[in-house]
Write a structure and sequence with these properties.
The chain is mainly beta. It has one helix at residues 6-30, and strands spanning 40-43, 47-52, 58-69, 73-90, 93-109, 113-122, 128-132, 139-142, 144-150, 156-162, 168-179, 188-199, 204-216. The longest helix has 25 residues, at 6-30.
């Protein structure tokens, strides 16, 4: 049997490296590998919205907006505070009260494609919880596959992935931020982050756009 010479052995060794690396790049571009590795991350300056605890039910109808933009992408987060509700039954807890919210996150990239769009809710105080509506008319997506909804936790989220490597994605939800203190004399706070991951043609990047909500007592 003829043994391969040194040139053939070297060529085979180089090919054994190039082929797996090429397949890895292809898998990442086609979405077979769902999670990008160590994306470059930038966080926009936080926007803060506060309200004094209402004494009775009332329409609020205030919109809070934050965004990030550069020469590649535009990411925007909108939180619309609809109203303050009180004295409703929340999963066995009487006299619950809280804010009804409509939230929308959108991203547009000029090159590459959008990998994922996630709404995160964190830093909730111990006397409140978030109930994300899961009815079909309460969730709106565009170029986005809704992967999962996780609520009722101190760190809740709604997770979606771009469909067919889109350049524009949108995710909108309805939620109720419920306060569990019956006396209505406790301050409440919550941070909402829109987290977007996209591929710019060279590397993966992540943009985080935060909004902090607060309800304070007199």
């Amino acid at each position: 049997m003829k043994r391969p010479n040194r040139t053939q052995t070297k060529a085979f060794f180089i090919l054994s490296i190039i082929v797996p690396v090429g397949l890895l790049a292809t898998f990442r571009l086609t979405g077979i590998l769902q999670e990008p590795l160590s994306p470059l991350t930038v966080t926009a300056q936080e926007v803060v919205w506060n309200i004094r605890h209402p004494a009775a039910e009332m329409d609020i109808a205030e919109e809070v907006i934050n965004f990030y933009s550069d020469n590649i992408t535009l990411v925007s987060l909108n939180v619309f505070v609809v109203e303050y509700e009180q004295s409703y039954l929340f999963y066995g807890i009487p006299e619950s009260h809280g804010l009804r919210l409509m939230l929308s996150g959108a991203v547009n990239v000029s090159g590459g494609f959008i990998h994922s769009i996630i709404l995160r809710f964190s830093q909730l105080d111990s006397n409140s919880t978030l109930d994300i509506m899961e009815d079909s008319d309460a969730v709106e997506t565009y170029n986005t596959k809704l992967e999962r909804i996780c609520d009722w936790l101190s760190d809740s989220y709604v997770e979606g992935y771009g469909v067919n490597q889109p350049k524009y994605c949108k995710l909108s939800i309805n939620a109720r931020w419920s306060f569990l203190d019956i006396e209505k004399n406790v301050e409440h706070y919550m941070r909402t982050d829109l987290e977007v991951t996209y591929f710019d043609g060279t590397t993966y990047r992540r943009v985080i756009v935060p909004i902090r909500l607060g309800v304070f007592v007199s």
